[in-house]
Write the structure tokens for this entry.
Amino acid sequence: MEQNSRDKLAWTAARLFQRRGYHGVGLSEILSAAKLPKGSLYHHFPKGKSDLALEAAAFAHREMTRIIDDAFQNAESFEAGAKTLFFKLAKLFEMMGKDTGCPISLILFNGPEEDIFRKRCAEFFTSWMHQIASHAKRLGKSSEDAPILAQKIFVTLQGGWTLARANQDGNVIRGLSTLLFKE
Amino acid sequence: MEQNSRDKLAWTAARLFQRRGYHGVGLSEILSAAKLPKGSLYHHFPKGKSDLALEAAAFAHREMTRIIDDAFQNAESFEAGAKTLFFKLAKLFEMMGKDTGCPISLILFNGPEEDIFRKRCAEFFTSWMHQIASHAKRLGKSSEDAPILAQKIFVTLQGGWTLARANQDGNVIRGLSTLLFKE
Amino acid sequence: MEQNSRDKLAWTAARLFQRRGYHGVGLSEILSAAKLPKGSLYHHFPKGKSDLALEAAAFAHREMTRIIDDAFQNAESFEAGAKTLFFKLAKLFEMMGKDTGCPISLILFNGPEEDIFRKRCAEFFTSWMHQIASHAKRLGKSSEDAPILAQKIFVTLQGGWTLARANQDGNVIRGLSTLLFKE
Amino acid sequence: MEQNSRDKLAWTAARLFQRRGYHGVGLSEILSAAKLPKGSLYHHFPKGKSDLALEAAAFAHREMTRIIDDAFQNAESFEAGAKTLFFKLAKLFEMMGKDTGCPISLILFNGPEEDIFRKRCAEFFTSWMHQIASHAKRLGKSSEDAPILAQKIFVTLQGGWTLARANQDGNVIRGLSTLLFKE
DNA sequence: AATGAATGAGTCTTCATTCAT
DNA sequence: CATGAATGAAGACTCATTCAT
């Protein structure tokens, strides 16, 4: 029961923050979307909205981690893995309505307790890049190239997702692999 | 006087939105930061906050347009121009306190009247890419390559700026030219 | 208009705080008792409840100052003036419903910003005692005795009012002059 | 165990109410100060906060009763006993941090169920005065004077404690015996 | 043309209490 | 017997906006 409510709250919050950012979403909206009563939030997240946001971001982080692993796990090359990743994320972007942004930055930038939030954000980003770099090495890239490639993937994805959102077009994300490797 | 107040308002708003997003900044904060009286906002921007946000975004757009032109104007090659652009923006990022994001998306995503805002955002992004593509062609790139390169620069910059903010490190932006061209 | 609303707010707040203390009275209760709309409070008292409480206390202080002067003004002796004071306050106590306490302590103790509130409270109390001492000297008491008598009146009144409230009997306050001087 | 928890709760509550009044202290604060689990309150006090407040007041009442007896027990005269009482209470006031008020009035005024609370308060006050009057008679005062003297002590103490709190100075309480008898 | 007073829906949060275990 | 999860009314406060001057 407990975990269910808590997770539902975090998941709902993540989904909403991703659309309109930390300040753009009210607690009442989250609560009603999660179909939970008003008082229940502070039971699960004693520190309130910021607590919830941190958990929502962790939620989104774990999901992204899983997606990255899924993409590269059975890839025949790093480039193929990256392409799979872009395609998976394009699909996700489309499924969520083409009006979402990077959950991590939308939750953790612009929020209160700026330093804690920002550091957490940096940790998640770093973690993703490490993860991608690991796959790169496993798939034959040199120890020198791997982190560079990982960062390249990361920034391209971040920027590409933003452009996709502006244009409401998931194909922008799909096209990123061409942008990166076909040249 | 009138234009002065109006511009001051738009400029101040842009500066603040860039840090905490559309919903993260209240009208009263903007007014007090601009040292303007309470009632003056609706004199200059009859539709209120959304009007102001649109103008603030236009303000930021014009500034970015100018920076892009400055960077490529006297460049000896497209790559050199891009590098100059990254360095200029890194400096800007640092001057603003290392805690800002892309003004356009922070203002125009997540706001009300979603569609109008989003379309305006797409227009600005497209405009930047066209502008960069123009410089690319002028500097010898083919008509085929130019828009691709422009998009590459754009997404890299968007994502790189986000990473720079998370890490509070302007050198992330400076490093983007290496990431793009040194390989 | 403006001053009217502000004063009405302060006066209403003082009346309510005197019954149930700073924390015992909600802003909404004050607003509805004053028949003023929700948002109007923060227009007049930007810092909110604590601001309002400070003003309410000042209001009560001025009223008490006036009552003290009225009581001693035409008195033939200090003792007669004190008796008049007790009788006036007994009447006030009864008019207010026999369920009120010292407005100053009820507002300024137990509130937030403890130090500012407490100091203000001490100032008011001291001011009353100075005022009473002045009248004492004017009415023939020595410079040595006057402040002692003033403090005596003050503490007796404070304690007597508390007892009167517990017993819901204004005569307790009337009896204080006998308690003090008939011996 | 059970009684221990119950008493700890009442004692903690009394201590906190004395500082910020009935409405100024939340149940959660009491619970966490007493280091007891959330649900335990309604086990010991089925009617909740008002029940607890009544018990806390009784607690404080018993303590005051004991202090009064201690002060007068071995006194050589009523005046000496009163002086001892003032000194004991001054010490208590200082030990508690100079920011407390009369526990009985702070708990029992301003609370809900006003009538029950107020009557209980009156009973306690009356009881103290009877007790002091008894000592007065035992120490040689007449049956006529004794209750008057007791009331005098009571109101002086009530008012003096209030003044001591405002001035954060325990010596105000010590000085009360001079105020009463040295003249 | 320009402003500050006024407004009430909205914000996040804490409250005392009940309930299921 | 004891407890922590659950609850919704109420808490103080901020919001973007309108209005009268």
Observations:
- Residues 72 and 81 of chain A are 4 Å apart (CA to CA).
- The mean pLDDT of chain A is 93.
- Chains A and C do not touch (no CB pair under 8 Å).
